[in-house]
Specification:
- Two copies of one chain form a homodimer.
- Chain A is an alpha+beta fold and 140 residues long.
- The first copy, chain A, folds into two domains: 1-88, Winged helix-like DNA-binding domain superfamily/Winged helix DNA-binding domain (Arc Repressor Mutant, subunit A), CATH 1.10.10; 90-140, Ferric-uptake regulator, C-terminal dimerisarion domain (Dna Ligase, domain 1, 2-Layer Sandwich), CATH 3.30.1490.190.
- Chain A has helices at residues 2-11, 19-30, 37-46, 53-65, 111-121, and strands at residues 35-36, 69-72, 81-84, 92-96, 102-105, 124-135.
- In chain A, the strands form two sheets. A three-stranded antiparallel sheet of chain A has the order 1-3-2. Chain A has a three-stranded mixed sheet with strand order 5-4-6, with helices on one face.
- In chain A, a hairpin with an 8-residue loop joins strand 2 and strand 3 (81-84).
- In chain A, helix 3 crosses helix 4.
- The longest helix of chain A is centred in the middle third of the chain and has 13 residues, at 53-65.
- Chain A is globular.
- The N and C termini of chain A lie far apart (41 Å).
- The relative contact order of chain A is 0.13.
- The structure holds a DNA duplex (30 and 30 nucleotides).
DNA sequence: ATTTTATTGCAAGTCTCTTGCAAAAACAAA
DNA sequence: TTTGTTTTTGCAAGAGACTTGCAATAAAAT
């Protein structure tokens, strides 16, 4: 079960499974969109889960450190979003400029490009962002 | 001459060529790195040009609206950077995680990818970011 | 030179995210 | 199951990037 293995991951780094961490994890599990800290906060408030926005920030950071959650910085959003990794591979996103819906792009076409860049620039390439915006079918 | 044509661009939108706009433009012209607002502010201060940080923000926004400057949001920097367009085509960047140096990647490999994404997601793709980080030759 | 209108600087405000600290909650040990 | 230790939480406050309101100033038009 997910929660048990996560608890072990937390405890192996001297951390504890708490009411708030459970709530954030459960929300991310059932929401199939990357959520921002303030969205997590608002949604949990609505569900009568008592949690502070500060705790949301601390929680997503812990989950990120444990490798359970990925932090996304989408194009010109001015805030980060978080999504559960859950065994999924590295991928990118497109966000609708009108309704804000975010769709996964289940591919990363940058392996060849990375090699080309390393050759041309002599950099050792580490990480990258690639995020798209556009208009979704409903909003066109 | 650059300044004259920029002045015309400004005036055709009811704007004026001012001391501070000249200073920001001149700095961007002679600096071959994308600069953040606070870097522009600090550099001009050093050159004894009296300018407020607020004015820097307003200036880069005007230059962006006129299409003279491109705003960059590099990977996990938490601030925007600005570079002169100067007839250059759309391109991407790689930033050294150690020294912060930014190198242009004189290519955009995403035309084919854009078409694929439109086909798969039914989105109309608008804009995108693609930014890399890594270690430059000197910092490896 | 004078008038009009855009621009500037300052102060204050917004937004996202972080930090300090005492109180509360989780876990461990008895 | 109570006690003790250590982490986590909530609250208040702070940091950093960026924006807005407004009176004073500067650019352009007349």
């Amino acid at each position: 079960m997910l929660e048990t293995s996560i608890k072990e991951g937390l405890q192996s780094t001297g951390r504890r499974m708490t009411r708030t961490r459970k709530a954030v994890l459960a929300l991310l599990e059932r929401t199939h969109q990357p959520l921002s800290a303030s969205e997590i906060f608002a949604q949990l408030q609505e569900e009568q889960v008592a949690i502070d926005l500060v705790t949301v920030y601390r929680t997503v950071n812990v989950l990120k450190e444990l490798g359970l959650v990925v932090q996304l910085d989408l194009y010109q959003e001015g805030q980060s979003r978080y999504e559960l990794k859950e065994g999924r591979t590295h991928h990118h996103h497109i966000r609708c400029q009108i309704c804000g819906r975010i769709v996964d792009l289940l591919l990363c076409p940058l392996k060849k490009l990375t090699k080309l860049i390393e050759k041309r620039t002599q950099f050792v390439v580490g990480d990258h962002t690639l995020e798209f915006t556009g208009f979704c079918p409903k909003c066109q």
